[in-house]
Design the sequence.
């Protein structure tokens, strides 16, 4: 989902900016050519891949501002340093137990979480041996460099940008906030007559339309399992998404972690809730300038496209990769379990205005109607004696 700010009127203005229309036209032409080359139809996962990641064109590959007030959405680290303080508390326990190690952050956005983590860990006397950032966006990598240089000065030396996950085994921590939701998803429609895959056509070479085809056997089998997991009472016409790329991607980016923990944060649900009959339109959601829509064809290349995460699937991937699924809870309980109140008091000091501002930020991170419930935290561990802190207050693993 991301969170969208109410912002100022100019921030909320949703007309495209000069230059954006040309960019959108190039993205449309690129995707339309891919549709033509594929014989007139592509799966939605391919559309999403091109719209988000086509080199030099996709939302994440090109210059869209993405995060923050002048962008399209905001995230927990953008809202408050309290998020980084809590993740640092959990990470400190992990690095403490294994006697140090490296941190790999996947999808580092503006670089705020990296700076916050390194500052809060440093304040606890913990310096990771390396801080690796793996991010597909060249534009965001530049922003991360600028932000980290401003915040860390010479300590930026320990930050390294990777093009691939580390090849050699390492000990430490992997952190990913709001990355899984950007993995391209397959879209499907179920009826008693059979399962269809909802793909994309481009009849006039410019505008995209949904178009259904009979599902391939892998999708049909997956749908049966998703439907069973959710109680089996989907009505005809039920639509949702499935993310076959989750398994290979999450396995690959965590493969080299020998001892330590992976902390995943994202909006999502256990499978049985994700695929409930009531959620009959799925969870696909687009963000453009802090406005949400469910139309991924409106502004290809200019708007973010994402889908909720099936946390049961994520747990299965971790389990199959040899990790212990050591924790699963809501963002609110993760933050509470990592002492967000104490961090707030410490950061505010004796300044009442600062205290009020931080309390407001904490509410946004924790309130059920904001990010507190929709966002979840999951820990995968390998070779540790227990879960990282923050997962004991409300253990939701039984819901997976
Ligand atoms: C929604 S932003 C979240 C940024 C940051 N974690 C935060 O919470 O503010 C998604 C981030 O993941 C990156 N990203 C998207 N897909 C990725 C992928 N397949 N591999 C690595 N990074 C990816 C984007 O470039 C961006 O930095």
Sequence:
């Amino acid at each position: 989902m991301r969170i969208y700010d109410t912002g100022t009127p100019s921030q909320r203005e949703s007309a495209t900016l000069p230059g954006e229309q040309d960019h959108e036209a190039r993205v449309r032409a690129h995707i339309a050519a891919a549709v033509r080359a594929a014989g007139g139809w592509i799966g939605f996962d391919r559309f999403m891949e091109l719209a988000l990641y086509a080199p030099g064109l996709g939302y994440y590959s090109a210059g869209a501002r993405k995060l923050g007030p002048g962008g399209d959405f905001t995230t927990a680290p953008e809202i408050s340093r309290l998020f980084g303080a809590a993740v640092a508390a959990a990470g400190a326990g992990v690095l403490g137990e294994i006697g140090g190690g490296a941190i790999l952050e996947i999808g580092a956005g503006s670089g705020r979480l990296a700076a916050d983590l390194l500052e809060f860990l440093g304040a606890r006397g913990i310096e990771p041996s390396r801080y690796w950032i793996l991010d597909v966006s060249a534009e965001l990598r530049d922003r991360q460099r600028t932000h980290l240089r401003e915040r860390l000065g010479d300590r930026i030396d320990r930050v390294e940008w990777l093009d691939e996950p580390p090849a050699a085994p390492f000990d430490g921590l992997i952190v990913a906030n709001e990355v899984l939701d950007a993995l391209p998803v397959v879209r499907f429609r179920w009826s008693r007559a059979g399962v269809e895959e909802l793909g994309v056509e481009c009849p006039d070479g410019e505008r995209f339309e949904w178009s259904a085809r009979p599902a391939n056997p892998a999708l049909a089998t997956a749908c049966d399992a998703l439907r069973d997991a959710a109680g089996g009472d989907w009505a005809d016409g039920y639509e949702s998404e499935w993310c076959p790329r989750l398994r290979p991607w999450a396995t690959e980016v965590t493969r080299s972690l020998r001892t330590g923990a992976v902390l995943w944060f994202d909006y999502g649900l256990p499978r049985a809730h994700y695929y409930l009959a009531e959620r009959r339109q799925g969870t696909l959601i687009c963000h453009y300038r802090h406005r949400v829509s469910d139309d991924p064809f409106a502004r290809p290349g200019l708007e973010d496209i994402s889908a909720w995460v099936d946390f049961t699937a994520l747990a299965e991937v971790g389990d199959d990769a040899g990790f212990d699924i050591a924790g699963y809870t809501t963002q609110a309980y993760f933050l509470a379990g990592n002492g967000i109140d104490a961090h707030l008091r410490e950061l505010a000091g004796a300044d009442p205005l600062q205290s009020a501002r931080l309390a407001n930020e904490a509410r946004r991170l924790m309130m059920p109607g904001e990010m507190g419930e929709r966002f979840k935290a999951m820990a995968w561990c390998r070779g540790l004696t227990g879960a990282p802190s923050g997962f004991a207050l409300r253990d939701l693993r039984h819901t997976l």
In short: The chain has two domains: 9-72+184-245+280-306, 76-182+247-273+308-399. The first strand starts at residue 42 and ends at 43. The two ends are 20 Å apart (CA to CA).
